[in-house]
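ligand=calcium ion
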Amino acid sequence: MSQSRILVVEDEPAIAETILYALESEGFEAIHCGTGGEALIAFRERPTDFIVLDVGLPDITGFDVCRELRKTSDVPILFLTAREGEIDRVVGLEIGADDYVVKPFSPRELTARINAIFRRTAHRPKPVEDSDAEVIKNGRLELLLERYLARLDGRELDLSRYEFGMLKIFMKHPGRVYSRDQLMEQVWDEPEAALDRTVDAHIKTLRRKLHEVDPDFDPVKTHRGIGYSFSDD
Ligand code: CA
């Protein structure tokens, strides 16, 4: 098995150093970032196998970092918290963390937790960076690609293959604006047979189906004269 890479996001140098030393002694490759922003960039450029994430960071909170990461990745995340009560188990699990430890902790306690999470998550689907990943998760929406199944808040959506195809493209690249031509090219088998208004019509039915679950949930944005994009905020 190749060496697992762990990203450590911690702004206090002494604590970071202790953690890095403990991880390297355990045979992990450890990478360090001192802010949430740096961590998001580092992870996007080269995803790691695990993240140790301090809740109190100088720029954005560890919770924000976790939410952002969870849009595209199922990487195991262990929170570090300054005091009991800063995070409770429910909150941590709601935003997608796997576990947390309270400072001060011993290096042995930390590595034991990490190893336990690795064992538990060993069979999770790969992050969506792999284009053939089976599951795409983005906030409240989840696509199970091989089963053509879409869920919003865990509720199954009855989507046509075109609606599903568009949602898949949108969710793979949140924020990217797609023209009608690009959507046709990627989703329709015979793009020349589809018209601009065909795309619009399927966007409309897609929105309607999302609204059936939550009338206020409108992740598909219209860019007048350009096309559509996906945003989950
Ligand atoms: Ca801190």
